[in-house]
Amino acid sequence: MTPIGLPLPDVVPVLRGPHVVLRPAVPADAGVVARLGVDPAIERLFGAGRGARRGLTSGEARAALARLSGPADTQGWVIEQAGRLVGLARLSAVEPGERHARFAVTMLAREHLGRGLGTETTRLVLTYAFAVLGLHRVTARVLSFNERALACLRACGFVEEGRERESVPFEGLWHDLVIMGVLDREFAGLAAARPECAGLAALARVVRDELATGAVSRAPSP
Q1: In Å, how far from its chain's centre is CA 205?
Q2: In this structure, how many other beta carbons lie within 10 angstroms of the beta carbon of residue 27?
Q3: E strands, the chain, where?
Q4: Residue 85's domain is classified under what CATH number?
Q5: Which residues touch 185 (CB under 8 Å, ≥6 apart)?
Q6: What is the predicted pLDDT for the residue at 8?
């Protein structure tokens, strides 16, 4: 049970922002993810080699979506923008007792980068993590050369907490893994100070009410 008395839901609630909608995965998403795969230019930011291919097999796509809802300590969403699936986001290693989790977000194509979609997604998930699940801290791990991801996290209140020095070999060099973290009070202060975050408190109230009343409907597993 979370500190506010709610179990982690079997089906995550829909999180609606001004430009993106985060929703549970459904079986039809597998075909979209298989066609898109993850853009090689984006996969490089996660340490994938230059030979990474565009597109996934149907099995790989189903496995990617299954990771959004499992294991039991994971809460994940597909990201939609204007009705199109554009990315994936999840909280993993959610520990309600210790009140922490790890966050990751992936956009599937480079045309979705630089438009603030990842930042908006991150703020929606952090609102859910802190104001609904009652977590105290959320962390993320990012390769040191992934400046775009680091900038997104900093814009959402994350600060660098440490580095695993020369932890990842990639393209003939060793790279640091940057450990980023944000606390509940830090994100609350940021959200209160920024006009673009004005709707987050209302979103949290709606989602809390939905979960408390059982209004979140069960979706079929991918």
Answers
A1: 20
A2: 12
A3: 15-16, 21-23, 75-81, 84-95, 100-107, 137-143, 159-170, 173-183
A4: 3.40.630.30
A5: none
A6: 85
| Cβ-based neighbours of 146, under 8 Å, separated by 6 or more | 45, 46
Token pair belonging to 202: 């209302």
Give the per-residue pLDDT at 106: 87
Encoded amino acid at 209, one letter: D
d(Cα 136, Cα 157) in Å, to the nearest integer? 13
Polymer length of the chain:
222
214 SS3 class: coil
The CA-based angle 76-215-124, given to 5 degrees, is: 40
In a domain, 218, yes or no: no
* Counted domains in the chain: 1
Q: Is residue 221 part of a domain?
A: no
In a domain, 99, yes or no: yes
Range of the domain at 135: 15-212
Q: What is the pLDDT of residue 117?
A: 94
Residues 6+ apart with CB under 8 A from 31: 58, 61
Low-confidence ranges of the chain (pLDDT < 70): 1-6, 36-56, 111-112, 216-222
pTM of the prediction? 0.87
Nearest to 139 by CA among 128, 124, 151, 129: 129
